[in-house]
Structure formats: structure tokens, C-alpha cells
Amino acid sequence: MTIHLEEDGETCRLAIEGEMSIYEAADHKNGLFERLEGCREMVLDLSGVGELDSAGLQLLLMLKREAEAGGKRLQLVNHSQAVYAVLELLKMEQHFGDPMVIPAEWRTP
Amino acid sequence: MTNDPREAFVQEVDELLEAMESALLSLEETPEDPELLHTLFRAMHTIKGTAGVFGFDPIVDFTHRVEGVVDGLRSGERALDEPLIAILLSCRDHTLALVQAVLEGEDPSQVSADLLGRGQQLLDRLCPEPVGDLTAPVASAPDGYGAAKVEKLAGREAADDYWIISLGFGPDALRNGMDPLSFLRYLGSLGEIVDIATRTDRLPPLADFDPESCYLSFQIGFQSDADKATIEGVFQFAEDDCEIDILPPRSKIEEYLALLDDLPEAQVQRLGEILVKIGALTEKEVAQALAAQAADQASARPLGEILVGRHDIQRSIVEQALDKQEKSKSRVAQEGRYIRVDALRLGQLITQVGELVINTAAMRVAVQRRDTDDLQEVVERVEALVGDIRDNALQLRMVQIGETFSRFRRVVRDVSKELGKEIDLVVTGGETELDKTVVEKLNDPLTHLVRNAMDHGIETPQERLACGKPAKGTLQLNAYHDSGRILVEIRDDGAGLDPQRIRAKAEARGLVEPERNLTPQETFRLIFEPGLSTKDEASSLSGRGVGMDVVRRNIEALRGSIELDSQPGQGTKVSISLPLTLAIIDGFLVGAGGEQYVIPLAQVAECVEIGREQALTHGDRHHVNLRGEVLPYLRLKEFFGIRSGAARKLRESLVVVRVGHAKVGLIVDELHGELQTVIKPLGRVFENLKGVAGATVLGTGDIALILDVQQLTALLQAHPQPQAVSGRH
Hints:
The structure holds 2 protein chains of 2 kinds. Chain A has helices spanning about 20-35, 55-70, 80-90; strands spanning about 1-10, 10-20, 40-50, 75. By secondary structure, chain A is an alpha/beta fold. Chain A has one domain: STAS domain (Transcription Regulator spoIIAA). Chain A has a 4-stranded mixed β-sheet, sandwiched between helices. In chain A, a hairpin with a 2-residue loop joins strand 1 and strand 2 (about 10-20). The N and C termini of chain A lie far apart (about 30 Å). Chain B is α+β, with helices and mostly antiparallel strands. Chain B has 5 domains: about 5-130, Four Helix Bundle (Hemerythrin (Met), subunit A), CATH 1.20.120.160; about 155-315, no CATH class; about 345-395; about 400-580, Heat Shock Protein 90 (2-Layer Sandwich); about 585-720, CATH 2.40.50.180. Chain B contains 23 helices and 22 strands. In chain B, the strands form 5 sheets. Chain B has a 6-stranded mixed β-sheet. In chain B, strands 6-8-9-11-10 form a 5-stranded mixed β-sheet. In chain B, a hairpin with a 2-residue loop joins strand 15 and strand 16. In chain B, helix 1 packs across helix 16, helix 2 (about 35-55) packs antiparallel against helix 3 and helix 3 (about 55-75) runs antiparallel to helix 4 (about 80-105). The longest helix of chain B has 28 residues, at about 345-370. At the A-B interface, helix 1 and helix 2 of A face helix 7 and strand 2 of B. Chain A: InterPro entries: MlaB-like_STAS, MlaB_ABC_Transporter, STAS_dom, STAS_dom_sf.
């Protein structure tokens, strides 16, 4: 797991590298929510997410909820195929309100 | 056994409608009795179902609507009141009319427009349009009501033909390696996940959030041909960490309902077993529900409630299954206790038992001639057995008269409304048993007598109050056994009969000479003469003077008799005396003038020898002094006009017979003893022969006449020197 940090005034840009599963959940939680605390807008790059499981998903949902509760903006960008597959399975593509770039070959027939 | 299914249908409908009527009448007293309401429901529901099997659409349509209303009553959505009971009674009648029309018509799916119109009228009255009244029931589509429940349960449009799967993962699911997503992927391989809602409402505040705990639950609309067990199998490994509810789609519900309908009713199954069998529940679900039930014994919730509460199954399926279970139960209970037997076969059996009785007697005679002790013993044993068989065979045809009596509840209710009278029907002795063939033939005369009592006997409330009687009249039906016969009484507390008016009328009609002296009893008997009616104006019910003589003829055709007693202002009592059975009796064999006669044993009081000095003759009346009691008597030989050369003996045998309170004596030549007798009716040729009830074949092959003691007694009391055939001296 790697979180690249790029702070630009009020916007916090993060990128998650590696897996978002139960094994990393605790670490991710600590990192993500702390950062969310200190910014007004968070942009989370998911292009490096190799695997997303329920714990990871739960974390994203939680992040979204907390952001909204705090009047902050959360943007998920550059969804990886793994992330897309989960959102598609749960029909949550619209849930986070972020545009997704979906290469044609990802779509399940 | 009844083989024609349509016949069985008619019989079933008959019984159900009978039960329905009786329930409705009882509901007038206790309008909320759940048992009675259930009886109504079952009647309509079962008739609907069976009619559906035969394709009797008009019956199905009608009963379906009535059933809907009754269901509303059952669930308390609508209250039962008197007008509604009246309409439901009419619906019951209409159902019967439909059944008859359908069976008589050429096309069972069609009935006359007239009948349909009448049905529609009834239904309109049954379900008036709700006018701003929320408590009024929804007029139509009881199915919609069921569907609404499904909708509520599933929280979705019932029109969507999906399985509704709810998954609530426990906090430890993730730690235990159960990833909800992998189950969903697997599920996707069995069908199509049409829609899925991920519910996050269990996510705690951030401070309490444990990223390794699972807070997610899902609701899934799933389309698949897989059955419930297969779908449940998907989540097999998650069982411990996940609450799983699988609700079948609507098409499945219909399938389950159809399967339920098809389940044989031959054995009672437990609710869980039934639901597992049709695939609506898995064994696991049942086991869990049962565990929940066991854990919560205090509240004693039925399994069905628990299952619905756990969202394992739709209420409509549980209800139908319970209904099915109920049906099987009653079916099995009935099958266990009763077998339907064709009355003809039973008649055959009894005839054959009769022959057996005769032949046993013949065997006895033959054995006695040979006088061998060991054979005698065998014969005695066989005779005892045959006697038992005879009693049991006759018992088979015995039915309680109560059912016949209870039919009159409706008659009394309807007629008293029609006449504007208040009449209570009191039934006693309903458990008294008599031969079914007798009961059947008793129906018409009884109906006539009951109507008569209501029409002529019981007065209007005003008249009653004016006489110082309670406004409500009482009509009493009673039955009891008395010396081998059954007595049926119809008693009213009405105005009673006026002997003088009867007398006047009878004289006017030339039925009795003005100078003749009649006791009140004899005067009342005139009522039964043809062409005598005491009501000056004929009403639609009775009083056209055609009734009572027909009643008497009917009763006499059953070897019975009818008596009437009345006290002016107090009421009238009609007593009908009937033989218990028409087939076999215990008899007492006597000889007179070289012929043999059988006297029904139950009516024999005693046999005595009398000397000539005891027999008194006053004019043309014969009396015998029996221990100070004066008995009229007749000589059988003379009665039947047999001339025999034998001189009168000094001492003669007198058989004292008893009918009710009356006793008379019959003088005979020989006493032969008891025997079992099969009554063979005499042909029409002997119609005018008085004092004879039938004939029987003796063991020796000889024919003996069976005496009609009732008639003999009546003759003897009316005429001093009766003759078997009038005009023969």
C-alpha cells in the first residue's frame, strides 16, 4: 500500500497503490480519515488499486459519508478495473457521483 | 363407495352448504365466533376449489367473490351483522342453485343469464361500494389484498418477477474471510442480478468504525430459474455470519400455490414439511424458525407467523399451506372415522343378512329334528353370531335425527320472518338414532308439521301478549326411543286446536255423523282425514286442507302412527311413532287357526293364560279382566276370518301388546316363542289388509304374517269387532 500525498492548499490529492482489502483496511482508515480532516477537498486516485474487497468498499463508503457530513468534497478518479468491477457488480456506478472512464474491454458482456 | 366424481361433488357441496347454513344461523347469536367464520370460509373456499377442478366456472366466480367477503369477516376487516347474514344465507342458496343448474345444464361453464343476474345482484348487495367509509371492505379482488401484503413484505413492486434476497452480514464476516462481494459474484453466475441496493445504514460513527468489521447489507432483486434451495446454497458458507432471507418471486408464489393445491390430502403434514415439499422453504429455514419458536416459548407464536416475520416466505403462501393442512386434517379425520358407502350396497348387505337370519332359523329347525347335541351347540353359537351381525348391519344405517332437526332452524327462521312472528326452535333428543331410510322419508311430513305449527299454531306477538303469553313463541322438536320405536314430537305453545270447530267442520264435510260421541282425542284425529282444514283462509304455507292426511299417509307408509293432542290456548303436540328400522325385527311367533303370526317382540307386554270366566262380553265389545285391569281383546282367528273346526279351549293364551300407553289383548291358539324376523313387504294386492305390517319366511319355509300392533290397537279401540278385511263376515 502506498499513499502518495500531494497537498495543494485546500485540496488533498491521494493515490492508492496496491490492494484495498481487509488486510490494509486499518492502515487505510488511519491515513485517509486523518487527511480528510485537514482538507476541504479530497481527490482519490484509484488507478493503482489492484483489488477491492468489501472492507475496501466499506472504507470508501465511509469516506464519502464523512466527507458529506463535513461539507467536504470527495472525488474518486481514475478507477481501476478492479474498482469498476465492484461498483458495477453492486450497481453503484452512480453512487459516488464521480465520472468514470471505462475502457470498452472492461465491460462485462 | 361413491364412484362418480360429480356425485361426490354434489354430496360434498351439500354437506358444506349445510355446515355453512348452520354456522350462519349460529352466527346470529355469536357473530364473532372464529370457528364459525372459518366454517363459512371453508365452505366457499372448498366449493370454489372443487368446482374449479370440474371447470364449473360460474360456481367458481360466484364463490370466489363470497369467499373474499368471508375472508374479510375472518380477518376482522368487516363486521358481521344481521343483514349481512341474511345476504350470506341467500348466497348459500344461490350456490346450491348454481350447482344444480350447472349439473343439469349441457355446458357446465355456462348458466342462464337470469341466474347470473341474480348472482350479480347478491354480490352487489354483499359488497356495496364503499362510500367514504374506510372500514368498508374493498369490494373486489381479494387476491389484490394478498398481493398488497407481499408488496409490503418485499418493499418492492410485486409486479417485478424477481427473487428478493436480503443479506445482512454480521460484523465478523470479513474477519472470517467471508467477503460479501464474492458471494454476490457467485450469485451472479446463477442468474441475473437485476437490481441491488447496498445498505450502509449500519455504518457507525467514525469513532466506532472498525474497518475490519462488516457493516454492509444488501437487498437484491434476482432473476433466476434456480429453486430456493440452490439459491440458499450460494450463501451456505456465510450462514454463521449472515442473515439471509430469500423471498420467492411472484410467479414462484403462484407456482407454490399451485403446488400446494396439488398436494394430496391423504396425510396430514406439518406446516414446515408442506412448505419444504413445494420448495417455498428450505429445510434450513424451517429448522431456524423452529429453533426460534422453541427459544421463545413464552409468546407461543405459531410457526407460520415466525416464518413470515423472518421474511422467509410470503404470508399468502403460509395461509394457503395452513388451509391445505386444515383440509388434510379434516379429510384424514373424516376418512379415519367414516367411509362413504353407497346406500344400495348397504341395503344389499342388510337384505343378505336378512336371508342369513332366515336360513339360520331353518338350520335350527333341521338340527332340532335330528336332535344331536353337538350340532345344537354349534347352531346356538352361529345364531348368536348372526344376531350380532344383524344388529351391526342395521346399526350401519342408523343416523342421528339431529341433522334432520337442525335443517328446520332455517325453515323456522325464514318462515317466522315471513309471518311476522317471533319463534324459538328448541331441539332435544337430536342424538336419537333411527334408520336412514326412515329419516329421509320423515323430512316432508316433518316440514309440513313444523310449518303448520308456525302458521296455525303460534300466534302473532300481539295476540300472544294479549293472552298473557311471552311474545316469543316456542316450537319444540323432540325425539326419543320407546319400546323399540322412536317417537318424534312437534310441540308448539300456540293457540291450540278448537275441538268444536274441528267437529263442526267434519260434520259439514260429512266425515262424522252429528249424533256420534267422540272423545277429544278422536276429534283431533279427524284432522288427519282428507279434506279437513281448520284455518278458514288458506295461506301460502299451509291450510289448504291437503296436508295432514298426506302426512298421515306418509307416516303410515313407514309403519308408523301419528297422534295429535292439543289444549286450547296452551298449544299443540303432534307425536309420531316410528319403527326403528324397516328391515329386521325381533318377533314373537304365535299360532292361530293353523296359521302363524309374528308380533314385534318390543311391543309384547306379557303372555298370560286366561280362563273363560275372565273374558267378558258386553254387547259386541270383548273385554278381559286382567288382574283387575280391563283390556279390550280380539281373537286373531276371528279377526282374520279363519274358520276352524277346533272347539274353543277352556283356557286360552292371551298376548298382551302395548302401544304407548294403550294395552290390548290378542287371543291366540299357540305360543311358539321368540325369533328374528326379516320383514318382507306385502304387495299392493294386500294394501287394504288391516293389522298386517308385512310377512316373513320362517325357518321351516312357512310364511307368517307380521302383525301391525299399532293398527290393531287403534282398530280395537275404535270398533268393537274389527275385521282384517272389511265387509267379510
